[in-house]
Amino acid sequence: MAKVDGPLFSLEAKGKIGDALVFFPWKGRHAVRRWLKPTNPRDIDQKLVRQKMAAFGKCVGAVTTPTPTGLVNGADMVVTVKALTPATQIWNAYLVKIGLQDLAVDGAWTAIMAGVAATNVSNGWVSAAEALLLTTLPSTADGYASDIPAWQQLVAAAYSCWKMGASFCAVDMSVNPSEMILADVTLFASAFTVAH
Q1: In what order do the strands lie in the sheet with 3-5?
Q2: How far is CA 73 from the centre of its chain?
């Protein structure tokens, strides 16, 4: 049932009336609209994209942001990505957005990760991810997605940085992550926690 202030004049109302109308404040005004049953489709593609977003999120969570006692401006990753982020966006959301433009499609994700796994520095990605304390992101319960290992989360972040043209100290980010040498992988991972 809708709650009203000043019932005779209907100055303010919040809530719904049956399954017909919804009253709510919006941008300082009182609004009313038709009631719609909330939907949250959980199809396979949506679940796979959500899992990839979670993988990016876990990786971004490993980046050292500004702290009063430690890094005043944050790690190299924060400083560099902030400089490349449009003023209307948040740096970490922009990093995820850039990566998901290509990697949201399951085939593209698989191809990039297979390319990195086939290189002779694949163990370097695993070691770097372990050093950042990244852990495997488990698959969804319905079995459509597979686990996303920690090293793939790190590769996804590197892919985003490569796409946006980020440049960290001595890291060569002008190449796709599958073309990075071991020294670049190590330096890229260090950009998560140090400032130069």
Answers
A1: 3-5, 12-17, 21-26, 29-34
A2: 21
State pTM to two decimals: 0.77
Over residues 97-144, the pLDDT tens digits come to 999 999 988 889 999 999 999 988 999 999 999 999 999 988 866 666
The CA distance from 158 to 188, in Å, is 8
| Pairing state between β 12-17 and 3-5 | antiparallel
Residue 150's CB is within 10 A of a number of other CB atoms, namely 22
What is the residue extent of each domain of the chain?
3-34, 44-190
